[in-house]
Write a structure and sequence with these properties.
With about 500 residues, this protein is an alpha/beta fold. It has 12 helices and 20 strands. The protein has helices at about 40-45, 50-60, 60-70, 85-90, 95-105, 130-140, 205-215, 295-300, 305, 355-360, 410-425, 455-475; strands at about 1-5, 30-35, 75, 115-120, 145-150, 175-180, 195-200, 220-225, 235, 245-250, 255-260, 265-270, 275-280, 285-290, 310-315, 335-340, 365-370, 400-405, 430-435, 480-485. About 35% of the residues are buried. Pfam families: LRR_At1g61320_AtMIF1.
Length: about 500
């Protein structure tokens, strides 16, 4: 690799991307001419580097410097820029962030950019909107494929300049992700003809504005709406023939979802029971996720008839007023089932009734159950001395993996677990995780290396859960089944 001395070594302090000075101008620095490879191959290699590594390579190589000015993937956040209090010195990290991003984008040629992600974590005010407008003006040009703008500050107010997407400038965009800003498309803007995925989170947009945009986005395949509180009525137009995934959650004012797109096979919904759902043709539905009160009863009582071809089902409920019923209806193709019944106010629940799902899903392969509760409302197996209940034996030949998170000494939960061991002949692995097992000092996410202090009732219940496993579950485990028990950390002694 050849070298040439030109000016001073570029600054690289504390891992921070500086590039404050153009490495081709000014004082002397040691610059490498680069390996003797064709420039298009070098550019291709450079495009696969993480942004910080790509910037550092540009500081020491002429070839990579030319490539840097048309780098295809720019990802700006405090983390990717290596910003921290030590690196920023006396300047606020937010101000340094704006300075760095502004400098890099001004040096970028605007050619070859395919992906741009901007995440502003703090120090945003309305006066900073001109920075964002200029950055987007540079990026939104023919050839851009992915555009992500995430404003983290709670009070951030930014109006996304929809005019930048008009006149064909945004026709190459395939993925658009906006968070915590206003997005006001009009009929004159239309849509994005290449857009396949739209993700809006905490975005201020009305239902009519969204429909206007969707009507002109015929290639859309995934639509994700989270906490968009201006939407009252969501209408998904029929012309979205390619749409296969629809997710709507946390939209507080939403009252109606009316889907006319004919090929939606995956639907995820999180909201109140008062939302009127009209999903159109549901026989092709393969995956469903539903989070609201009463979801477990609804899933067992209603879904087999309306969505008989489901292959994956996830239900989450904070409150169930009725147990899962034992019915003749079936999920003949269901392979993955996940049920979560969690919440501070969750009443006592008969977990044994969930065995109804095993009877209804002969093709089931994996079952995950989360029953974590801060205050256990169910009667403990050690407090009720009556005989443990048994359901009729069921020979299930497909279910291989069962995981129960938040396992406690609740009697009905012990009964359900024993029923699984006695009836599921194909079972290979059973994992029982006590609520306190996730709070371990050895957890790699626990930076302090110490266990969090726990209330005495939680500690006691954790050890009662382990005792219930030893006494009532382990004797029922066949030799062909691997039992994994995640116990409370040894620090949590009673």
């Amino acid at each position: 690799m050849g070298t040439s001395m030109q000016r001073r070594q570029p600054q690289a302090t504390s891992g921070l991307i500086t590039l404050q000075d153009d490495p081709t101008e000014g004082d002397e620095v040691e610059m490498y001419s680069g390996p003797s490879l064709p420039e298009d191959i070098l550019c291709h290699m450079h495009s696969f580097m993480p942004m910080r590594d790509a910037a550092r390579a540009a500081c020491v190589s002429h070839a990579f410097l030319r490539s840097w000015r048309c780098h295809s993937n720019l990802n700006f956040s405090k983390e990717t820029l290596g910003l921290n209090e030590n690196a920023c010195g006396k300047d606020a990290p937010g101000r340094v962030f704006y300075s760095k991003v502004d400098h890099i984008l001004k040096k970028h040629s605007g050619i070859g950019l395919k992906k741009l992600k901007i995440q502003i974590d703090s120090d945003y005010s309305a006066k900073d909107s001109h920075y964002l407008n200029n950055w987007l003006r540079t990026a939104v040009a023919p050839g851009i494929e992915e555009l992500t703008l995430i404003l983290v500050p709670f009070r951030a107010k930014y109006n996304f300049p929809c005019s930048l997407l008009s006149d064909g400038s945004g026709d190459s965009i395939q993925y658009l992700h906006l968070a915590r800003c206003s997005f006001r498309p009009t009929a004159t803007l239309g849509g994005l003809r290449s857009l396949t995925r739209l993700h809006l989170c905490l975005v201020r947009i009305t239902g009519d504005e969204l429909v206007c945009f969707l009507t002109h986005s015929p290639a859309l395949e995934r639509l994700e709406l989270r906490s968009c509180d201006k939407i009252v009525c969501l209408k998904v137009p029929r012309l979205l023939q390619r749409l296969n995934y629809l997710e709507v959650s946390g939209c507080a004012k939403l009252k109606v979802i009316e889907n006319e797109a004919p090929n939606v096979s995956s639907f995820a919904f999180g909201g109140g029971n008062t939302v009127q759902l009209s999903l159109g043709e549901t026989l092709q539905m393969k995956s469903l996720s539903r989070s609201c009160c009463g979801s477990i009863f609804y899933a067992r009582a209603e879904l087999p008839s309306s969505m008989p071809n489901l292959e994956a089902l996830t239900v989450h409920s904070h409150t169930e007023r009725a147990y899962a019923p034992m019915l003749c209806s079936k999920f003949p193709h269901l392979k993955r089932l996940s049920i979560a019944l969690t919440g501070v106010s969750s009443p006592a629940y008969d977990y044994l009734s969930l065995a109804s799902f095993f009877d209804a899903a002969p093709s089931l392969e994996t079952f995950d159950l989360n029953v974590w509760q801060r205050y256990m409302k169910n009667v403990s197996v050690f407090a009720d001395h009556a005989e443990l209940r048994q359901m009729r034996e069921l020979e299930h030949y497909k279910l291989k993996s069962v995981r129960i998170t938040g396992f406690s000494s609740a009697k009905s939960l012990v009964e359900l677990t024993r029923h699984i061991l006695e009836s599921i002949t194909s079972l290979e692995c059973l994992t029982l995780e006590t609520p306190q097992s996730s709070l371990r000092c050895s957890d790699r996410y626990n930076k302090s290396g110490k266990c969090c202090p726990l209330a005495e009732d939680l500690l006691m219940e954790g050890h009662k859960a382990v005792l219930a496993i030893r006494r009532f579950i382990e004797p029922k485990v066949p030799s062909t089944v691997k039992l994994r028990v995640l116990e409370p950390c040894g620090c949590h002694a009673v």
